[in-house]
Amino acid sequence: MAASTFLLRRLPLCVQTGKLSRSSYPAFTTLRQGWSRSHIRPSASLYSTKAVDLDQTNKPYYITTPIFYVNAVPHIGHLHSAVLADTFKRFHEMKGRKAIMSTGTDEHGLKIQQAAAQAGMKEIELCDTVSKRFQDLFDAANISYTTYIRTTESRHAVAVKEIWDQLLARGYIYKGHHEGWYSVSDEAFYPSTHVEEKINEKTGEKYHIAIETGKEVEWTTEENYKFKLSAFTDKLTEWLDNNPEAILPKSRHLEVQGWLKGGLSDLSVSRPRSRLTWGIPIPGDDSHVMYVWMDALTNYLTVTGYPWKNISDSQKAVCGWPADAQVVGKDILRFHAVYWPAFLMAADLAVPKKIVAHAHWTQGKMKMSKSIGNVVDPFTAMQEFGTDTIRFYLMNDGGLVDDADYSSELVAGRYKKLLAGQLGNLLNRSTSVALNPSAKVPKQPSADNVHPDDKALRKKLEALPGLVDEAMANYRTTHATQAIFDMIAEANSNFTHCEPWKLVKDPSNHNRLQTVLWYAMESTRLATLLLQPIMPTKTAEILDQLDIRKDERSWEHARLGQGWGKDAESRKIHTGTPMFPQIKLNNK
Ligand code: MSP
């Protein structure tokens, strides 16, 4: 049997039945060394790693997703983190800023070592296979990442070694004895106060779980390297006190401040090689392997070209650090809001500007997870409903604060009511041949003497860009879509109220009909423009139909009356196949 066929048979069914084929696997070594799409690889003269040395004038907007564990194939919750980051990257590009986005896979640690052993595979085979699956997903979902990082890449090992050396040189790492509860699933140590004893009802055996995550823990006692996390309690507190919006949503910010109140204990940052072989060796001590979270968190620096040695001034300006926003699920907040900034402070590097913690997708009100077996396959979902429908559903229903329960019926409902029933309907109305046989853009009505029927809609159109901007500044896509669809609903109901199908019958109503059509078309244009970061493909098709040029799709055009420029009269509105045709659920 060919090696790759053998490999696929051992993976979960959804990997086997997905888009993977033998031909999609280049040799593993090729994959590891050179498959990232693009990344910044500085070279030139050496300079200090101090954050202040980085020129921030032309710094691109830099947003990250967590890097995904390769012990299981992606589910819809993983896709959520990626769509969220992609939406903000696209939004900032729309506003005219250069933006970079990183994503990738977290490939080291006991969890992966054990998953590979269970599948009877070499660790790197598992990593290559599942990492490719994540990348395929992100490509299929139109995630416009600029760097796909894998922690098994050599460029990452360089960054990890550097951060270790910096922490060691500054006296923040020491060798110590550690006793405590370790959860392989969470890859985290827990103090006894965070652990609960349980009894297996079938066997009567006792076991222990971490209260926070419900994951099993085991008692470990070992020699390892420790990071002086305790030395950063005050600095972290000061950072959060002075930057009350550093962590979104506010409730999470307060939660982290609460964790700091009790003081922090030092953190184990290595595991003995006798327990963990699959990882980056501790520089200068091969008998220890780097703690997987220290390894993984450093990926955010790796993609910027850290340690920024041999780098030219112009490259310094575009390296991106510090990140403008780091998107994480609420389950990994402690690692990103406590450990990560502490490592950065210890290395004298700037901390991220914002950490955006989103809530979870549940299925049957339980967090999706491989072990519970309640995961939704994102490939199937996108095949069934279309990529942009799923992107829209995730951004419309998946919030920062409350968990959302995934349901195919709800996806279909949003499609039917909002996308087809509201946006699609407004588009059909604006491009109706019966009402507008010339297919020209109607004349823009004057802002003075607004017809009483149009006043409420006009007010909504004027306010919309500001509302969306505010929602996006607070990383609330749900608020942005709500404002957009609120305006569309008003536009539709005003259209119905104005009865253009009656106006068209009497030529003396020509001017009023033009105005009614203009408002419908302008509302469609504005809504579509603002939905671009969430639904990049569908919106491009709609804007093409409205004959909006590519250079008229940026933020400055997302204003009432900033559409078809001076040559509006020469534009041609197109009607084509319905933008949101009826869909049938697979199982119905
Ligand atoms: N490898 C770590 C992250 C290291 S970052 C330096 C990890 N990986 S993960 O694969 O378990 O999770 C990756 C992301 O997916 C996290 O943000 C996590 O919150 C998110 N999700 C995993 N399950 C989820 C849901 N059910 N719903 C929404 N997002 C969830 O943690």
UniProtKB/TrEMBL annotation:
Similarity comment text for this entry? Belongs to the class-I aminoacyl-tRNA synthetase family.
Look up the EC number in the record and give it.
6.1.1.10
Q: Which UniProt keywords apply?
A: Aminoacyl-tRNA synthetase, ATP-binding, Ligase, Nucleotide-binding, Protein biosynthesis
InterPro entries to which the protein is assigned, alphabetical: Anticodon_Met, Met-tRNA_synth, Met-tRNA_synth_2, Methionyl/Leucyl_tRNA_Synth, MetRS_core, Rossmann-like_a/b/a_fold, tRNAsynth_Ia_anticodon-bd
Q: What is this protein called?
A: methionine--tRNA ligase
Gene that this sequence comes from: MSM1
Task: Kindly give the SUPFAM superfamilies that the UniProt entry links to this protein.
Answer: Anticodon-binding domain of a subclass of class I aminoacyl-tRNA synthetases, Nucleotidylyl transferase
> Residue ranges of the Methionyl-tRNA synthetase anticodon-binding domain?
445-557
Q: Where is the Methionyl/Leucyl tRNA synthetase domain?
A: 61-430
